[in-house]
Amino acid sequence: MFLQYALWGAWLPVTARYLSATTSEGGLGFSGSEIGMILGLAGSIGAIAAPFIAGQIADRYFSTERVLGLLVTAGGAVKWITAHQTEYSAWLVLSIIYSVLYMPTLALSNSITFSHIDDQENDFPKIRVWGTIGWIVASWVFPMVWLQQGLHFQWMPPFIVGTEVPDVTSRLADALKFSGLISVSYGAFCLLLPHTPPKRDAIEKLAFKKAFELFKKSSFTVLVIASLAVSVIHQIYFLQTGPFLSHIGILDSQIGPAMTIGQFAEILTMAYLGFFLKRLGFHKVISIGVAAYCIRYAIFGTGSFPVWIMVMSQAFHGFCYAFFFAAAYIYVDKLADEDVRHSAQTVFGIIILGGGPVIGGWLSGYLQNIYTLDGVFNYSDFWYSLSLIGLLTTIFFYFSFQTQLGKDNVK
Fold first, then answer.
1. CB-CB contact of 277 with 121 (8 Å)
2. Which of 2, 25, 201, 246 has its CA 20 to 30 A from that of 343?
3. 404 by DSSP, 3-state: which?
4. Closest Cα to residue 16, out of 328, 235, 339?
5. Domains of the chain, residue spans
6. Could you read off the pLDDT tens digit of each residue along the chain, which spans 411 residues?
């Protein structure tokens, strides 16, 4: 889990800033729509391919840890090559290839974990939290080592800062190389993961086909609809927060560390997720997770707040991720039959990592065009629009979702 999310946290927080910065600043000068395609469409294609690449292969033919190792190693090589590209077409094609390789590994890392634990509500959050720690470490180490010099402590996030090195924006591309190195190391480490064999004796040979039958359960359908809306505004967070923080005065070398405020909060919420699930149940916990998106974007949109409040409000990300996504993963695992749990995770991933990112990429560019007047982007109206989507989704989920688990599971 540490390596799974460290390789993601190494490049995702800063890439939008690098792609959007002008060539004179050291970036690539891509438009909002182009960035949405690179970080949205590419991710969607990978997520849609995930059931066929990861779910079917890992559930039926090869051990999960071997498939995982092969995919992350190949993905690391693609990331290294991408770091050297400057054309939009090259970035788009390579991003799609990378997504097809990486997106299935999110479900595979989850399914390996679920296969070797007995108490999902308590054990999974404790293991998954190391993914958050990995994201934080990668997001901090790269700028401290490569983007800054003369580090010192300050009270305002991101706490440890230094003087930026020359051409700092152009150096953001090296975050992809850093991710590539982590990926290759992760691929080697997969050889040490516990053996997770496929279910060759399963009655249904097409695992992903049986997994799609979960839509017959109303709770899964409601969760999927809510997840689609949430994943749209979740994706836009990574498309626009980097440029937004730069807009309000955060230095390029501090964007990554500043965004890890959300991951620090995620550690705390993940640590107590099992506690809240047992006492509040999936219905209330997931509802709180959706509401957190509404609150965070409302704060982003309130321009009268000082910068430090904008930065610290990312702490709501802890509730956004742990209470919504982590709790949803656990619910899907409990709802699915044992022989298709890998595929159930990937089918769910189609929604949150497939449909959401492509819609989010389009919506981000569309709203940016609407709220840009005379070359000035109105971030306030932009974030308020996302907050409204979060509010409507909260209302829909709270009044539509009914848990459909056995008596021995979480209520």
1. yes
2. 2
3. coil
4. 235
5. 2-195+206-400
6. 999 999 999 999 999 999 999 999 999 999 988 998 998 888 788 777 766 766 566 656 778 899 899 999 999 999 999 999 999 999 999 999 999 899 888 878 988 898 899 887 788 888 988 998 999 899 989 998 899 988 888 776 567 788 889 999 999 999 999 999 999 999 999 999 999 887 655 444 555 566 677 888 899 899 999 999 999 999 899 889 989 999 999 888 888 888 888 888 888 888 888 899 999 999 999 999 999 999 999 999 998 899 989 999 989 988 998 899 889 988 988 887 776 666 677 678 777 777 888 888 889 989 999 999 988 999 999 999 999 999 999 999 999 999 877 544 544
SS3 242: helix
Distance (Å, whole) CA 45 – CA 61: 23
Residue 365's CB: how many other CB atoms inside 10 A? 20
| DSSP codes joined into one string, 74-136 | HHHHHHHHHTT--SHHHHHHHHHHHHHHHHHHHHHHHHHHHHT-S-HHHHHHHHHHHHHHHHH
Helix (H, G, I), strand (E, B) or coil at 250: coil
* Contact between 323 and 276 (Cβ < 8 Å): yes
Cis before 158 (ω within 30): yes
Nearest one of 223, 216, 146, 227 to 179, comparing CA atoms:
146
Mapped onto helix, strand or coil, the DSSP state of residue 151 is: strand
Residue 159 structure tokens = 């706490």
CATH number 3.40.50.450 is the correct assignment for the domain at 2-195+206-400? no
User: Which pTM does this prediction carry?
Assistant: 0.77
Give the C-alpha separation, 190 to 94, whole Å.
24
Quote the CA–CA distance of 34 and 315 in Å, as a whole number. Answer: 29
CA distances from 339 to 51, 56, 195, 266, 342 (A): 14, 11, 16, 30, 8
Q: Which residues contact residue 360 at a Cβ distance below 8 angstroms, ignoring those fewer than 6 apart? A: 36, 40, 231, 232, 233, 234, 235, 236, 239
Q: Which positions ≥6 away from 221 have C-beta within 8 Å?
A: 215
